[in-house]
Fold NADP-dependent oxidoreductase.
Amino acid sequence: MRAIAISDFGADPELIETPEPEPRPGELLVRLRAAGYNPVDTKIASGAMKDRMSPRFPLIMGQDGAGVVAAVGAEVTGFRPGDEVYGRFADPSRGLGSFAEYAVVAQDGPVAFMPKGMLPEQAAAVPTATATARDLVEAARLEEGQTVLIVGATGGVGQSATQLAALRGAHVIATAAPGADEIMRALGAAETVDHTKGGVADQVLAGHPDGIDAVLDLVTPPAAVDSVAALVRPGGVICSTIHALDPEALAAREIRGVNVVNQVTGPILAELADVIDSGELRVRVESLVPLEHAPTLLREIAARSARGKTVITM
Ligand SMILES: NC(=O)c1ccc[n+]([C@@H]2O[C@H](COP(=O)([O-])OP(=O)(O)OC[C@H]3O[C@@H](n4cnc5c(N)ncnc54)[C@H](OP(=O)(O)O)[C@@H]3O)[C@@H](O)[C@H]2O)c1
């Protein structure tokens, strides 16, 4: 099968030919039609997370994917060949990931039936980003009428978080570079602020001089996060996906600080599929890239602006 792999941490991604993986007992072999890119994919490849993993090289990149069950291992009961599924298909200890024509996942792992109204190219964009958005909104305990700022709202996590926060009845302020504000309003943002003009906190404070209830922050590094946290009223909450917060220091100011680590499980993916099928949540695929062009994409992607998800097609 064809796959995109790295030969070591820091090496350039390459298109390789490699044997199809064998499903072990309890596993599904899935013929992937599409794989969703997430920033963690390039972080892993760079070696930034090497203290937390011992992969086998060559390591096939990617986590998220969608396709059709091609075969099942012994003891699989919940899925059959031909089922359309989506989920996370990474097993670095076996050198396996989702930027490949075939991948495996445990039947009780992060896999579920695809949302019925979606194509694999759309479903592959969902797992990591939308599950993380769900975690953020849960961790913030957002309620109707609260005002929440989402920093990094135009990306994969942020677009889902904007919709899920608005679904809870929150007043959403979304960061958006010029040209992206209409997209964010269509997804449920009540206001947008242009982060490329600088001073997101000042722009928000101008319209909300008494502060706001919550911040969901996907991009602000530890050295700069205090200016954003200062917007939150005592009793409020700030959540970060990049571990930028010092919860103890925030607690001293009566602000709850949560460094969110996502949970992507089969039941959560099944729940998200239901929300998508109900029409309440959209996932916007910004670009589709054929597998053979993925190495070029992956070399350039850190410098690109995200207005939704990038999906690799097989
Ligand atoms: N903790 C976890 O479990 C977890 C899970 C998922 C993701 N993450 C992390 O969360 C982050 C976001 O993930 P993602 O998938 O949403 O990334 P993404 O799709 O690349 O989106 C990032 C967005 O942030 C915007 N942005 C960049 N700098 C900004 C700034 N200074 N102010 C406001 N917006 C800014 C970008 O738009 P422009 O380019 O137009 O500025 C882009 O739309 C990544 O670092 C990812 O690794 C963590």
In short: The CA atoms of residues 130 and 160 lie 6 Å apart. The first strand starts at residue 2 and ends at 6. Residues 2-126+283-313 form a domain with the Quinone Oxidoreductase; Chain A, domain 1 fold (CATH 3.90.180.10). The pocket of NAP is lined by residues 38-40, 128-129, 132, 151-152, 154-158, 175, 177, 195, 218-219, 241-242, 260-262, 305-306 (CB under 6 Å).
